[in-house]
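Tutorial handout. Part one gives the primary structure; part two gives the three-dimensional structure as C-alpha cells.
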Amino acid sequence: MKLKHKKEGRLQKGITLIALVITIIVLLILAGVSIATLTGNNGILTKAQTAKTETEQASEEEQIQLAAMNAAMNTERYNYKVEDGTVPIPAGFAPTQIEGENTIAEGVVVVDEKGNEFVWIPCTIDEFNKQRNTEEGWSSKQYSYNGTTSQWGDSQPNQEKIQNSIKNKEIGGFYIGRYEAGVPKEATEFYANSDGASYKRNTEKNADNSYIPVSKKGVQAWNYIDQTHAKNAAERMIRNNGVQSYLIDSHAWDTTCRIIKKYDKTKNLLDSTEWGNYYNNKTTKYENLNTLYALHTYDTGWHFAETYSKGQVPKGPKGVGTNRLELSTGASDDFKAYNIYDLAGNMWEWTTENGNNAGGNKPTESMPGLQITDVAGAKNGVIRGGSFGDNGGGDPVVRSGGDPTTSNCFGHLGFRVVLYLQPSNK
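Part two.
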C-alpha cells in the first residue's frame, strides 16, 4: 500500500531553508534598529535619563533659590533640628532641605542669600586641635618645614573667634565651602569673552582686591592666585556679627577629612584617585560630563589656560601629551564626599599655614609644577588635596604640600572658604 502525501484537494505547504535564513536576518535587523532606538547617545532610554537628570537638577536649583530667599529673611541664628541632631544656622543663611542634604550623617547644606553653599562640620575643640601624625598613615603624607618650631604654622588671625566657634556649646563646629572658591560673574575682565561658550583670560594674575569669591556649582575655580590674595578674598566673602569667612586652615581641613572618614566610609583618604579630578582617574566617565573645562599645558609649571570651553568634556582627564584637564566646580558627583565637592583633586588649595623653608625640600615627580626658592628663610605656604596635574595615590586628600612660596601663582592653585560662627551676646 502506498502512503499518499497529498490529500484530496489540498497541498502541504512548508518553508525553505533560504526563506528561514532571510526571515531571521530581517528580524535581527529590526531588533538592532529597535535597540539602537532605545539606547545610544540619541536613544529613547538615554534621552529619558537625560531628561530625568535635568528635571532633578532644575528641582534642586529651584530649592536652592527658595533657600536663598529664606536666608535673606533670616536675621538671627537659630537651631535647626534634623533627624540625627541639631545644627546652628547663622543669620543670613538657610538650609537647602534637599533630600540627602538634611542630616548630619550625610552633611547638612546651607546657602546664603546669594546662593553660596556651605556644609556643616560638627566637632569638639579636641578633635579640631588633633595632630595629624596621630592619624594612621597621614604622617607619611605631611610636609614638614625645616627649622620651624610649630608643626602647624597656621597664620590664621583671630584665633579666639575660631576657637569660640568650636568650643561654644551653642555652636560646636564650623562651615566649609561646598565648592572650591569660584570666579564671580561680575569679574568680566578676567576674560575677553564670557558669553557662556568660551572664556579667555585677559590677565596673568587674578590678584584683584575687590571681587568676592563664590561657592557655587558649575563655575570656574578661582585659580592663579597667591596665598595672600586668597586669604584676603576669602575674608571679603561674608562678614556679619554672627559669622565670618576665612581662608581654610590646616585644622579645619583635617577635621573635615576625619568627618569624611567617619560618615563616608566609601572614600579612601590615602588614595583619592576614584573621587578626585586627577590625571589617573579611570573611574569617572568624563565624556558624559557637560560643563566648563580647560586643558592646561605643563612646561616649567601649570600656567593658566588661555581658553575655557563649555560643553561635552573630552574623554579622559589626561588629554593630549602633557595636557591636564581642569573642570568647573562640582562637575561630577564622583568628586563629592560628605556633600563637599573637589576636596580631592582639581585644584591644590591654599591654607593659612606657612613657614620658612631652609632649603632641601625639592619638587617631586608627583608635584612637578610646584616651585620653591632654595634660599634659607624663603617663606612658603602649605597647599592641600592635590590637583588635576597629580595622581590620587601620591597626592590624596590628606596630602599637605609645602613647596610653593606664598607669592606663587599657578593654574592648578586655588582656595576654599570656611565660616566660623560667634556665640550670641544674649
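Part three, for discussion. The two ends are 117 Å apart (CA to CA). The chain has six helices and 18 strands.
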